[in-house]
Amino acid sequence: MSGNGSGSGGPTGSSGGGRIPDGSQPRDNFAAFVSARLVDDDTADVGAVAFDPDHHGDALGDGRIVTGWEIFVGDEAEEELSDPRFIRLPSLSWLADRYPQLEPLFDEHDGSEASWVADDAGRLVPWDGDDED
Description:
Elements: E1 30-35, H1 36-40, E2 48-51, E3 65-72, H2 78-82, E4 87-88, H3 92-98, H4 103-108, E5 114-118, E6 124-126
Parallel strand pairs: 1-3
Antiparallel strand pairs: 1-4, 2-3, 2-5, 5-6
């Protein structure tokens, strides 16, 4: 995927290491794949989050590192998920400032593949891949 963290996508930072931020490096050095709607629309809320370790550690042209975090509204159409025009790459700092409910995931997740969805109260809870009706 390609995209950018420019404009309303938040700050960019200097080069970071190829690992999950553990507090020893500024979060500005790390980026996540994010639905454009979450970056471009101040009223949109996080509805789904995934961590994919296969997408962790790639360097972007601006020196930031892709973390493996993928963050979505949760109702994206297939076009939004497959077209790079609908993806942004903001820093983890920007995301944690805008969406504080992400900070515990960034701080505590162990780096394994995982997914979360927002419950009715907006809390991010683990998702096992099964839809409930």
